[in-house]
Design goal:
- The structure is a homodimer.
- By secondary structure, the first copy, chain A, is of the alpha+beta class.
- Chain A folds into two domains: about 100 residues, Winged helix-like DNA-binding domain superfamily/Winged helix DNA-binding domain (Arc Repressor Mutant, subunit A, Orthogonal Bundle), CATH 1.10.10; about 70 residues, Dna Ligase, domain 1, CATH 3.30.1490.190.
- Chain A is built from six helices and six strands, in the order ααβααββββαβα.
- In chain A, the strands form two sheets. Chain A has a three-stranded antiparallel beta sheet. A three-stranded mixed beta sheet of chain A has the order 5-4-6.
- In chain A, helix 1 packs antiparallel against helix 2.
- The radius of gyration of chain A is 18 Å and the shape is globular.
- Chains A and B meet through helix 5 and strand 6 of A and helix 5 and strand 6 of B.
- Chain A binds a DNA duplex (30 and 30 nucleotides) through helix 2 and helix 4.
DNA sequence: TCTTTTACGAAATATGTTTTCAATTTGTGT
DNA sequence: ACACAAATTGAAAACATATTTCGTAAAAGA
């Protein structure tokens, strides 16, 4: 959801940066700039969090109802190839896309109550994984650490849960 | 693949144990014992590793060609519910099932070259994750750590790769 | 502008999994 | 052993997510 209140909106400068970087990628690849792609990536980078194709499509259609989901899929693949965006799968069967990762290789905590996905990263953990790999005669290309559980702050959690439910009913 | 050479075969006692445990689960749930289910779980527990539905189905059909994949799926779900088996997904789009985990909550290293999946577990890592959760005000129910990369022993890796390719062509 | 290449949208297809449904099998009471 | 209700099966259809196809449209370069 694009935050219309401006409260939690993504800094327009950041969005611009990403747009420029993607334009560069498109050019380097000898691909073409199109209105649809521009729309999709602008909408995408204006969103926060771990966005499913479905969620993105809804917002994209708000901007231009004629854009189909094939184009959204195709553009997301390009975003992943450009390394501006990472694809994630948290086991609910859908791919999610993340374009505003603060830290390069971070991990996730997924609250099974309210659905909140938060990121963390820890240098010791990275070192630790390196050791483990060493011990096991393994060369790490990438890793994936996910902690599934619940927010300890139950109030905040319940609040998010309600918000999410309201959102699911189209309460916007 | 069921190891016919006996070299790396699962101890029949272990298989028996699992069969008994599953029978118990079936009874506790008020479900019925069937030949198909017995066949499927026997075949499954005679196999090692992280088994896909496809792989299991091939072996099951060897024992009884009339068993369909719906039944295999259904039985796997029961096995997961009984907690005798865990479902895993390593990002290649298929669910894999693991019935002989030595350690309760272990992690995985996935070689992207030869496809080998090995397990490891480390008490310090568990402690570490607990700390991380504490810092982030989070209660862990379960976790998932996967290291994707390559075997450092390239010879062994290449060997496994070839073996796998041969197997894929029906070389058995 | 003309031409070539690339991208688009809608629909078809692919893939992995789940569900439906009529027929069969199992467990239980007699 | 027999009948009955409930559960299970296999084949096919449905499902959900993702990808590909194909005719049309749009973009970049000559």
């Amino acid at each position: 959801m694009i935050d219309a209140s401006g409260k939690n909106a993504v800094d327009p400068k950041v969005i611009k940066e990403k747009e420029v970087a993607f334009a560069q990628f498109i050019q380097d690849r000898g691909l073409k700039t199109t209105k649809q792609r521009n729309t999709i990536i602008s909408v995408f980078f204006a969103m926060r969090g771990h966005i499913s194709v479905e969620e993105l499509l809804v917002e994209v259609k708000r901007a231009n109802p004629k854009i189909g989901y094939a184009t959204v899929y195709r553009t997301l693949h390009l975003l992943v190839e450009s390394e501006l965006v990472q694809e994630r799968r948290f086991g609910d069967g859908l791919a999610r896309y993340e374009g505003h990762s603060g830290v390069e290789h971070h991990n996730h905590m997924i609250c099974l109550e309210c659905g909140n996905i938060s990121e963390f990263s820890n240098p010791s953990l990275v070192k630790f994984q390196g050791q483990l790999a060493e011990e096991n005669n393994f060369k790490i290309y990438r890793h994936r650490l996910e902690l599934y559980g619940a927010c300890k702050d139950e109030k905040a959690c319940q609040l998010r849960k309600k918000k999410k439910a309201a959102h699911a009913h189209g309460g916007g």
